[in-house]
Amino acid sequence: MEITLGGIAGLIAALAFVVLVFFLARVLSNVNRTLGSVANTTENLERQLDGITMEVTALLHKTNRLVDNVEEKTELLAPVAHALDELGTSLNEVTESVRTVSSSVHVAADENKEQIAQAVRWGSVAVELFKKNKTETGNERPSRRRGRRERKEDTSSVSPGVVATDDTLKS
Fold first, then answer.
1. What is the pLDDT of residues 53-67, one digit of tens each?
2. Cβ–Cβ < 8 Å for 124, 158
3. Cα–Cα distance for residue pair 69/57, rounded to 1 Å
4. Which of 136, 137, 128 minimizes the C-alpha distance to 160?
5. 3-state class (DSSP) for residue 2
6. Cα separation of 164 and 155, whole Å?
7. Model pTM?
8. 114-130 b/e (C-beta count within 10 Å ≥ 16 → b)
């Protein structure tokens, strides 16, 4: 048997092909394992996504029920809010009326303060004269059960500053 150059070249080509097939088989085996792992991961992901999808669907249904419930409550509270608005408006009007009346009374009091002071002086004089007249004409014996206020009033006398006015009697 004679080995020729063409036979050696064919033998080298055959050995190279065997080495190539061996390495390709290993690579394809690794690719097969990797693709199997990817397939398992994809299946697990699909199952998890199905669970998540069901949970999201349930959550959306609950959210829709809550929104409907909030809308119902809002509709029920609308009259209350309207009544509170009217109450606030009424209170503002009452406050403004009281402020106007107070201002009017203040202006009237400022305009008539001299007359009011004179009326108070005349009233004080009248009360003091009434008390004085009562003690002078009443000789009956006072009861023993007198209060502190009555004892204090008995000891007081008409003061000239209170009685003396421009147009009144002086004591």
1. 999 999 999 999 999
2. no
3. 18
4. 128
5. coil
6. 20
7. 0.38
8. eeeeeeebeeebeebee
